[in-house]
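Hi,

Apologies if this is the wrong queue. I'm a grad student, and the batch job for Aldo/keto reductase from Inquilinus limosus produced an output file that my downstream script rejects. I'm not sure whether the problem is my script or the file. Here is the sequence I used:
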Amino acid sequence: MQYRQLGATGPRVSAFGLGAMGMSGMYGPSDRAESIATLHAALDAGITLIDTGDFYGSGHNEMLIGEALRAGAKRDAALLSVKFGGLRDPAGGWTGFDGRPAAVKNFLAYSLQRLGVDHIDIYRPARLDPNVPIEDTVGAIAEMVQAGYVRHIGLSEVGSETIRRAAAVHPIADLQIEYSLVSRGIEDGILATCRELGIGITAYGVLSRGLISGHWQKGDAGAGDFRSVSPRFQDGNVERNLALVEALRAVAEAKGVTVAQIAIAWVAAQGRDIVPLVGARRRDRLAEALGALDVALTPDDLARIEQAVPKGAAAGDRYMAVQMAHLDSEKRG
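Support response: The file is valid. Your script probably expects a header line. Output copied below for reference.
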């Protein structure tokens, strides 16, 4: 495993992190035993950064990770990154976001219990609460840093103005945001802001939820799978996007690697301040992703990748319209 410094003030982490969301139903059913085995395999491979959210499976994901850490006595090997604030209802629906200071401390108390730990390594609001100044939310986390319950503060899916306001309250370790060959919005200003302020990037969606993994086929999304309603997977869009994948496959095969490996390697090659989060929920997919660590992309490789998948070439937004409207990171002007 290779390691990188996560921002100017953050911890030293593995060059790749493991995103655990898919282990808790967002992409359809998953196997509990295989999920735990995958978490153990990641830690055994030297991955230290494990990313979750308290709303993934309405607490299921945190309990799963807690079980895996207890079973393998691996707490000291794991750096836990937790997003909070997403509100769910008993039917699994989404009802908003809560970034109030009292809510921050309440969410944290429950996360510590579910994970079975005494502190969270990186704690971050999953979205900007439009009704609560970011200074108040970050200020509440800062109090928890002082109390020893949190080590570092992160952000997620916010724009440059919000990043600056948050960083004025407390040092920010990293911004978690979607970044892939087909989701390159952060290149329009957010990435530069983070670099100016010494804030690292943890990039999720590096395979665009499996779309550019080289394994996805039209019709693979079943009931309960987020992709069944995601714009990029809908008729008219998915065909155009899979054509991009085939163009990328030609580049990957010429390089002697898989589509997933070259897509992950591309994200990692955009800077040592960027840590890709691999959303594997099976050991075989994790092993394939880890192979990207050994993929060195030359300038010629990068040019061929850009030709195969030009910036802005993807058809469809990365979320449905109602969700896009709530993303501070997508606001312009």
